[in-house]
């Protein structure tokens, strides 16, 4: 785990393996960002000119290494691009700093310590840099025993944030928040990246139980017998084809001064083959990530507890494996859900909405102030919004807008989506109360309409479809690694914080 320290040392005097500075584009060419004045002085005021000679342009995602001159304790200077320099009186945005710090941390894999002299003027800026660096330093190597020899490059071991004030309460709180948040995001990433032969409903539940004991959270696990006794037909129906049975996990954080309760519901399909409606070749390889919603909910509850937010946050993880077998649910079967409604299963690969439906009904029974579910729910949402943006649907337009603005604030790309009433008719079933499929066009919206049927009356509800950004298959960028990303955790935690402050 990468360590974080706040340092009052100057950029020229701190001993580290590398010194990170920011550079940006301006109308006059490359400019060195604030915070790196001592470094520029060591280059006789020619740092920008030297970098331009090496081909640096200051673009976001750019990283240029060069040997440090005499006068600096660090042997290497790493210049990271910040994009366009801000206008007079403005500062660099939090997401710009976050991504630059992430790029630097990834570039410095194998280093023991790096000093970050990136520009910030307040605790919020320092927090963004810390978040980016700690997220960028992430690597999943648990199953790479053969690579753990002397030649293996481990993640950056320590991030020293220059210019922060370790004795200032606001800066200290920002650092502690960044550390708690990023450690839980990286925990979610670990779970998403874990192979499904090791992460299945029972083991996932055990991990949550252990975390609950560590952080003083109440955890309740319903196994197959309890689910059967309780009538959770959706979760049981999805898990029927698997050797390893499903689970419903409740993890709760309570605060003595809390006035509101936020319920979070996560889709936790630890492997999705599609069931009898088997996925085609080429679509199975990454389906271990179909529990990303549950991982995000788990991480958000623990992060809220570690930060100490004055709000009650309850997480519901609907866990199952969706497998084909002689005992699996078939297209045409009818399931009786926990709510009492019956659902005709037309496609067993539309399973996420079935497990979420039971969890939404159960969460509604506790009458929280709001419910937010998170799921890698539909390929249709990826077609609509791409691989980096999640969709937001809600039964309250103001709440949907608020979540969209929060996501934008914390650096997660999202977009508000509608719930058109005319699409509901497509799920009418001649056999049951509702079918789990409707019109093909607008499939992501149809899934949201299905979920809305299982939310308790009068409860504010939102649905985040993170199918696009939950798992990144391309090359790493900024603080985003290849594989599990931990999408939506930052949005959920900030949402809980706003709820605690009485803003929602």
Q: Can you walk me through this structure?
A:
The chain is an alpha/beta fold. 33% of the residues lie in helices and 22% in strands. It is built from 14 helices and 20 strands. It has helices spanning 37-42, 47-53, 94-107, 123-136, 169-193, 201-215, 224-230, 233-239, 292-307, 352-364, 379-385, 397-410, 443-452, 489-500; strands at residues 3-7, 18-26, 29-32, 63-67, 76-84, 113-117, 158-162, 218-222, 247-253, 261-272, 312-322, 334-336, 342-344, 370-375, 390-394, 414-416, 434-435, 460-465, 471-472, 483-484. The chain has an 8-stranded mixed β-sheet, sandwiched between helices. Strand 12 and strand 13 form a beta hairpin. Helix 9 (292-307) packs across helix 14. The longest helix has 25 residues, at 169-193. The chain is elongated.
Tag the structure with descriptive keywords.
7-stranded mixed sheet, 14 helices, 22% strand
